[in-house]
Every structure is written in structure tokens, then in C-alpha cells.
Amino acid sequence: MRSRKFLSVALGLTTLAAAAACSSTASSSQNVTVNWWTWDPNQAAAYEQCIPAFEKANPGITVKVSQYNVSDYFTKLTAGFVAGDAPDAFMDSVTYLQSYASQGQLLPLDSYIKQDNVNMNQYSIGTAAWKYTDGKQYALPMDWATAAIYYNEADLQAAGYTAQDVANLTWNADNGGTFERMVRHLTVDKNGVRGDQPGFDRNNVATYGISNLELASDALGQSNWGALLETAGINIQNKPNWPTQFNYANPELVKGVSRIRDLSNNGFSAQMNEFTTSESEQLGSGKAAMALDGTWSATSYSQLPGIKIGTAPMVAGPNGKRALITNSNGNNIWAGSKNPGETWKWVSYQESQACQTKAATFNGSFLPSIKASTDALAQQEQAKGVDFSVFADYVKNNELFPTPDYNNGAKITDTLVPMIQSYFTNKSGDSVWTTLQQQSKTLLAAQQ
Amino acid sequence: MTSTVIHDEPAAPVTRRVSRVRSAESRFAIGRAVSWTYLVLFLAVTLFPFYWILRTALSNNYSLIRNPSSLLPVGLTLGAFERVLGLASPAQAIAQGGSGAEIDLGLYLRNSVIYASILTVGVVFCSLLAAYAFARLRWRGRNVLFSIFLGALMIPGIMTLLPNFVLIHDLGLTNTFAGLVLPGVLFSAFSIFFLRQFMLGLSSEIEDAALIDGLGPFMLLFRITVPMTSGPLITLTLLNFINAWNDYFWPLMIANDPSVRPLTVALGVFQQASRQTEPDFAGLMAAALVAALPMLALFMIFGRRVVNSIGFTGIK
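YS: structure for the whole thing
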């Protein structure tokens, strides 16, 4: 607060000096450049659409958007913190909230939010995820993403299913529910025998019922195996936020993951190491009849030539209700920014309805956190023939819950994911989940 | 006695081999066929990745998803190259599965040329001076100092990354060409070692003659030693240029500003956005191809020099 006051006084003084002397230093302090970073080239291009309107409304502020691919992004960010040339504001994943906030690299936004009367209720999801343990709000939520079912319409029809059938699937750990039944029936071997018919050859499958569910890049399996567990009410984290343990040893969870592993062992879904390519290639090339994939893939599925892909909501739990773990990236301001006031102006403009709608409808690369913008995007895509109503319904029916914040995000991913992969590739048995639970407890406790 | 044994032994098998080849032409043909097969296979394995780059660059991203393992370009299009060269509008790019991000190829190409040229000229010149001092001048502590220099060969680059980074930042040289080249331009243990090994083998008679004629050490270096070392110097220049051209991590750390960002870093816009989404494969491959073209041309013209470098030193 005090530093802001100081800054505004300083700014005022330099402006005065500029007016009086027209010196060269004045022009540099009048023209402020706000640097903003993202790892997503699509979002970089999308948010660039907001710059002209923003710069027009805020003369003297220039916005520069830079993009670095995700494998370099956080290294570069950390190096920037150390060297003091990190960007003024940047897109961030909740995985890094704890480490960055505890290191004092993030600027709390509460006073700005209060000063500008930002209506935090306009964000349908993500606000809570960006509150740190000190109770301060460190980011405005940018977007949200969760899982959905995509399916090959021709395969479905040939198997005698309707769009309604996929939309009403349920799953449970005891018998796999209607979801597993459909997956078996959709699977066809090289001789044309379906997965639930006698004589099915699991070693020579032509089309799998579902894309691989095991390949996860995070410890919660958010866009595949974990999504099934969570929607069936089997929670991995022991608390909604800042969990102290991942309940991997929960017998229900072990039962669930073993069902998922059996799907691939029995030839109903691809083995984890069978394809190096993502779900969209498995579905697009006809190797799988359905894919459990992220909401972010909807647009690209709609563009595939010569194949009709339908979109259905994620599988529901045994009680017919959905609980979808939802990742929400945030827009952080760096504590070391020399122009926090100007940066806030840009960040708050980015997360306003005007900019979110403009950016999201530019290339449909993300689902905006503001409900009205999501609706606008859904409308636009609907007109193009892409069904976004499924995603809009998630918000309407209150089926989303945020990814938990937890300590040591990066380290947990690096340690636990290989162990989880060893289970799904049949290199370790059920006991690995007990080890995983112990590991998670240690890693979640220590703030490093 | 011993000497005759040594002399006799190698001679015998040679005669035997020659007679065997003459007597059995069919076996000769088989040997040739095997070696040709091996060569062709080896060539195929080497060239296939290049073909795959070309095939992907000429494909449409969405068609690639439909048929990821096709051997021919899927949905044949030059769209990816248009995107790379900045000829496609954002709307066109999005329609082909690109991001709509623009890339100013000319600018980044210029930056790469500037960066690689300054670095190469600097490294080669400094290494030449150092190698000359280590190989041709006599001074106390020369060998000890050289061992210390050699020790620098064993320090992995990642160890010096952070100190270099903090230093360049404190000097206020981030986002400048000076900051980009400074850590590498003055010292390269490999280049010094490479030149020194060659200079050690030069005969001292010409130098002595020049000394008698009254040349000082600098004139001696530039008038006598450099012309005699021109081969390895060209090789070294090429090697350094290729290395600098391919540099990724250091420019990534230093060059935030597009006005100094080299091509390798700039091509990141075609990379994977997040772990779940797919890269713009066609764009990435087209960009990689365009970035590699100057290097391919250099290699075609000077390929023998690069291969010679292995002969000069016995190390890669």
C-alpha cells in the first residue's frame, strides 16, 4: 500500500517534470511497457486481440505479450525471479502457487480488487484456487478446463448407440457401470468380433472402445483416470484444498484404478505405451471409438476431415451426478514489477468480460473463466457446428470443482507420476498405491 | 630373430587373402552386395528423419490427426511454410491447425546470423591467440596453465549457467547481443585445445627463419602460423558457427526481446502449448527445416572440412 502511494507520488512528480522540461527521462516514465507471458501460443495470439482496445483506453501503456513453450516456461520464469527481470504479469498454473507465493514472488491483488470493485462472482471457477494459505488473492482466474467424452459418430451408430446413450453414461469402481459396458461393445477386433462377444481376440484389436485412460502428466490423473474416480465420488485429495495426503491407499481407489488397468489389459482400451500420440490421434485415426479428452480439444476435433466427432459430457458417478476436477490458470502480477499499477490495469482488463470474450472467440483456444464469455464462445462455436453446450452446461449445473492447491507441486509430479506409470504398465502391483500415499504425505507436508 | 618373425607374419595373410579373392569371384560379389546393402540401409536410417520432417511440413495438421502414420504427406499443402514465412493471415493459420501466432522470420534469421557470426569470429580469434601461446611460445607455467584450461573442458555448461546469467544481468546486458555472446566469445576450451594440437605439429624451422629475419611474435603468428593453420581454422570456424546457430538455452535465458531473439528460440511458438495439447506439428517441422537450410548448405559446401576435424584431433 505504502509503496503504491510512493509510486503514485513519484509518477506524479515525473509527469510534472516532464510537462515542465520535456526531458528525455520523462518520456520513458510516461511510456510504460507491461510485459505479459504465457506458455500457450494460442492464448498469446488470442490475448493480443485485446491490446489495441486496452492501449487506446490507457494511453502511455504498451503491452508486450511473449510466449515460451511449456517445458521452458517455468525455468525461464524462475530465472527471471532470480535475476530481477521476470515479466510484470504472467499466466500461471496452480501447481506453482505455493512455491511462488511462499517465496514472495507474487503480488497480492486484494487491495487492487477492492479499489476497482472487481466483482469476483463473475468468475464461475478459479477464484478460490488462487487464494493462498495467508488468505490473500494472488491471481484473477483466466480460464478453466476439464474432461469430456468425444466419440466417432459412425462407430457409435454401427454399435447401435445414440447420442443420448453417451450423454447418460455412469461409472463405478465395482462393475464399471454403463460406461464400461459401452466400451466393451464398441471395441472391435480384426475379425469384426465385438469386445462383449465370444471369441473376441484382445491381442488383435482394430478399434478400441476408448482411448488410453492411463497416461497422466499429473499425480491426480486429471484428464483421464483421475477424472473417472473423482466423478464417481472417489476423492484422491483428503481435503478440497491444501490436502495433507492423497488417499491413494483407499481400497475404493485401488479397486477403481485396477478396473481401469484391466480395460487396457483386456484389449478394450489401448495400452499406455502403445501409442506415443495423444487421444485426438487415437480417435481421429479410427483406432478408438471414444476418447476421454480435455475441453480444449473440442475445436480441433470439429476440424478433422472426413470424420464426424460428437461431444458428450463426462461420465457421471453411480448416483448420476458429475463432479469434474477443473483446472483454472491464473493471471499473476510479479511482486518485483516496477509498474504494478499499470500492470494491474492490463491484468484486470484481460480478465474483464470484454477482453475474455474477444480473446476466447478469436480462436476458441480456452474456456474463459467468466460465464458470460463462455456463453458467447459457446454460441459462436455452435453457429460453426461445434457443440459447446456440454461445457456451458457443466457451469450451469454446478458440476465443476477446482483442482486443489498443494505444496511442492512440481516435485510431487516428478516423484509420483513415474510410480503411477509403473502401475499402469503392469510393472508394479496394488501395493504401489500404499507407497504412493506415504510419499504424498511426506511431500505435501514439507514446504520446500 | 624377433624382427624377422614380425616381418613375416603380416605378409602371409595378405597373400592368402589376395589369392582367395582372385579364385572366388562370387564371394567377392557377395561381399560387395553386403556392403552395398549395409550402406543403403545406413543411408535410409540417416535420411528417413529428414524425409519425415519434410513429409510432416507438407501436411495439414488436422489431416495428420486422421492419419498419423501415413508415409506420404497427408492433405498436401504448403500452408505450414506460408505460416513460417509469415505469408499466412492469422485466420488462415488457425484454419490449418496453427495458433495464429505470427513469426517474423526475417528478423529472427538476421538475429541468428549476427549472433552466430560475432560469436564465431570472437571465439576463433581468441582461441587462435591462446593456442599460439600454448603451442609456440615458451614461458614459465605454460603446461600447468594448459592443464587448468583443459580442466575447463570437463565443467558441464549447466554449472556456469546461473553465475553467467546473474553476471550478465548485473551488467545490464540482458536483451543485447553483447549479453548473448559475452560468456562464450572470449574462451572456448575445446577450440584452444583443437588449434593447439595442430600448431604443436608445425615445424619450427620456418618460424626460426622468420625470427632471424626480424619478425616479432604477432607478425609471426599472422604471417607464418595462420597461413599454415588455415585448414583447421576454417574447420573450427564452421564448427563454431554451427554450434552457435543451434544454441538454444542461453539465448532463451537472455533474449526476451524479439529484436535480439535468435531463430531457434523464436521457433518455440510452434512448440507444444501445454502437456496435453498438441504442437503445431506441420508448422514446427517447416520452421525447423527452414532454420536448418543454411546449415545444410554450409555442410554441403564445406562438409569435408567438418569431417576433417575428426582427423585433426581424433576427437569429435
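YS: worth flagging: Chain B touches chain A at residues 60, 62-63, 65-69, 75, 90, 94-95, 97, 99-102, 162, 165-166, 169, 174, 252-253, 256, 268-278, 280 (CB under 8 Å).
IM: good catch. Also The radius of gyration of chain B is 26 Å.
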